[in-house]
Write a structure and sequence with these properties.
The structure holds 2 protein chains of 2 kinds. By secondary structure, chain A is α+β, with helices and mostly antiparallel strands. Helices cover 31% and strands 26% of the residues of chain A. Helices cover 17% and strands 34% of the residues of chain B. Classes of the chains: A alpha+beta, B alpha+beta.
Amino acid sequence: MRLRLIEADGLSWKLLLEPHGRSGAENMALDAALLDRADCMGEAFLRLYRFDPPCLSLGRNEPTARYDRSAIARLALDVVRRPTGGCAVWHEHEVTYAVAAPIATFGGLREAYRAIHTRLSAALQSLGVDATLALARPRLPSPAFHRPGPCFATPVGGEVLVAGRKLVGSAQVRKRNAFLQHGSILLDGSQEIVSLVSRGSSVVSRETTLSSELRRHVSFDEVADAIVAAWDAGATSTPSLLDLAPLAAAVKS
Amino acid sequence: MANIPTDLRYTAEHEYVKQTGDTAIVQVGITDYAQGELGDVVYVDLPKVGAALQRGAAFGTIEAVKAVSELYAPASGTVTEVNQALEGDPALVNRDPYGAGWMIKLRVKSPPELDALLSSDAYKKKIGQ
């Protein structure tokens, strides 16, 4: 893994750009490790990554009884529990992002959602997508939470929408000094697999993808470049490259 | 404006402490300000009765708006009661944070620890109210 430093928001962001995918367990362990670093050492990270193999992630508090284990086994899905809240996400054709930073960077829960999604919106707009943010006051998530269904079924305040459909699904975990927000920016495909492995009636997903919006293939790299450029907007120094292999090795061990 | 009762004590992490009929046992929950900031609560994860808590350590989590936040013990002690009603209706935390939305009751190991908590005025100052 390699990382780049950007001075913005009054701190040094470490941008981790991962060229290859990792398993769900490894990805979540890395995100959790970044949160610990942010919490204990005040560091700030933006990580852009992907899943290999594709993976079904469940929200931290979602009941497992909501999902059909035999269907998951039959489809041989990689499944992981996220440290963050929210509902299930199918990670296949996407750019996954993680932001781990001190609480003071953006302030409260909604402020952080809005600040990060504003940057993601700017990145997506630079690609030609008419991305907007959902209304600041969140829609009630309770019905969606208590019924099985994909994360993309229900937008909350500050999330990224295109024509009312979610293009980015995000979730957070907050500790005393730091928070982790991670999420999926959909390149292509669908969240249908979440419904396929859900028990009972599930909430209908209302996602869109970059490929369907732009009517062309959109690559991981071009979205990652656009996000880095959005983070660079507040940069005050020339980025440099560093090796973050020790952190990845620590997570693996 | 959030309701911050004058007869309660507070932590910097937005928990409140309320005295019960037993002077050694306090009721703990999150403040009206905290529930307003979090939004609609969908899940509360609390310790079991009998759990030993350390002051300042995380004792549970609360989920709202797809965010999981940690809850911090205002004092060291032993959990004597857990609000089971939150399992079926976590939104009680939003509707009545100081009443039906309480989280745990704690037998405080060293009552003088409570003196270090914030007064309502100090907590109001912290939240800019």
